[in-house]
Amino acid sequence: MEQSAVLPSLEPLAQSERISIIDSLRGIALLGILLMNIAFFAYPANQATNPMIANEMGTVNFKVWYFVEGVLEGSQRALFSMLFGCGVLVFTTRLEKRVSGTMPAELFLRRQLWLLVFGLINAFVLLWSGDILYHYAILGIVLFAFRRMKPSYLIIAAVVCLAFQAARENRDLYVDKKVIAKGELVAAIDTTKTKLTDKQKGELEAMNGFKNNQKLEKKQEKAKKAIEAVRGTYAELYEHNSNESVWMETQFLYFNPWDILIFMFLGLAFFKMGLMQGDYPLKTYLIIGVVGLGLGLLLTYVRFKPQIDLKFNFFEYVKSVPFTLYEIPRTFKSIGIFGLIMVLYKTGWFKWLFALARPVGQMAFTNYLMQSLICGIIFYGIGFGLYGMLQRFELYYIVAGVWIFQIITSHIWLRYYRFGPMEWVWRSLTYWKLQPFKKSNAVEPVIATVQSTS
Description:
- Helix content is 71%, strand content 2%.
- The protein has one domain (2-453).
- The chain has a two-stranded antiparallel sheet with strand order 1-2.
- By secondary structure, it is mainly α.
- The protein has helices at 20-42, 45-49, 60-72, 75-98, 103-124, 133-144, 151-187, 198-213, 216-230, 234-255, 258-273, 282-309, 314-320, 327-347, 351-362, 364-379, 395-416, 421-431, and strands at residues 2-6, 449-453.
């Protein structure tokens, strides 16, 4: 005998259920992430990270690079990942309160798989090679398995991921050191007396190739070719950017999942503790901000000094440093910047800032993809073709323009609609039913029917 059971409404989060500070933080992170991404939209990757290539040393452009890379780089992406961790918990626990069985897990998996599709569209249609959606889609499924953990265990998981990431960075460093050491041993052999074996020739060739690729003129030549490709035809642009996307979504993701998981775990822990919601006193956030940013900046200086002293020659850098640092100072800085943002929130003096950012955060998915579209039009050859043409400080005029545009459009849009356009598409695909869009529409619940036998 079959019976039909009507499950509770499975419509997306109502406005009354939203956590305003989370939306505001998401908006701040979304706008802030463009501060770092803009250089990669505008320049070849090696030029974006190396001020030597465009002769920026000693100019205002170097100061801009130093501030963005030294203070901000990775922090907004980290905050974005923390907020994604919060979103996983909010989405699943809300469904689990209303529906039993496997339906919450099924909807979550569907949500993640559609996010993966949108990540592929961002990477291979909008041609943004720095897409993060694909990574979130896959690693969010990993996080799902840990969502019931206690905050203390989640923080331990984050620390373990940080250790894995730091180990990975230094493993790569010592692989390169080994290439150099073997090559130098072979180079010291007197070939007038001793004939090199094929293996020794290979080791010498590997070292020389590494060394030659670190010459400034080689890097400038590589940047020039990238500029020509991105400012060329659509086919040339696609070939260049899609190759970078393939690397990002395969090798980078599978060798460095810890880079994102660190902050997903921290976001989940902080949300369960109430830190993300602002439940702690101002003093707590001030300590987090000062200690985190202080340690992060100190370690970043330790990382940057040899790079700058050696004029960004990675061959000499590898030979000189006993260890490399990226993820550890990034983690401290990111937590510190989060703490300072929450200080602004707790003082109550910056309510206008959080109110300004809130609609941007509610439409973060739309605005993230919109940044890819806008920057593609501005910089790629199929648009205005400004790739590689602007000075670094000029890029931040464009950032300011995009911020103003997205703040204004987000506020206007959400006066009339319940979701951003891409949020609506994502939710409709997740729940497999068109969701009510205009605010004037009556909310139509999504009804699921389950058949059971008895």
